[in-house]
Amino acid sequence: MSERVLTGLYLAWALPCIGIVLLKDPLAPDALTHLAVFAWLALSLLAIPWLRRLAERHSPRRVFLCACVASAAVVEGCYMISAPLHPSLLVTPGTGAGEALRHLALDLVLTTPAYVLIFWAVWALMRRYAYRPIEFVVLVGAGQALGDGVAYLSANPAMLVFLPWLMVSYHAMTMAAFLALRDRVDAGAQRRRPAMFVLPLLVLPAVYWIAGGTILVVVRTLGWNG
Hints:
- The chain has helices at residues 3-24, 29-45, 48-57, 60-79, 97-128, 133-148, 150-155, 163-181, 199-221.
- By secondary structure, the protein is mainly α.
């Protein structure tokens, strides 16, 4: 199937899902979070030429990992008003600027090592298989959403229909770096095999579960049981 057709099918699924959720309560913290994430996704795409130039002087893998981790930090910041790593880190209108920054810093201290591992796995998939942009959007986005949102989706299985709503956050983390650097991957190592359509849906959730389990142990060690 052509990339144009696949893109059209995905947009026909994603846009109504996103529109329905946004229109339900556009001022809800989760909706405001996603609007901020949409803005960051659009802004991050402007960095594609800069990332390409940067990859001419540095390792493409390093540039990819750093760009994705930096974008993940921005997305984590967006989520501080709706669903931070732990409820005690929630930022509300009554939270002072200094306290909000401390909450974000603690969130990033705990999540950044996990993101490094996750984006290393994404890079490994990119090196092994020649993903077209729409394939990367759907497969890698779904793999991350299923891994990170397993508890939420298990409790709310109907939200699988609205999976694109969850996937947007992961597009904001990886899409610009993928588009900028996919041509910098060793082309001789890339191939197209049936496994390329399955592995992101298996590998990425597994990495998220490992990383999430580790973070949970740390959080409980800190005495956060709420």
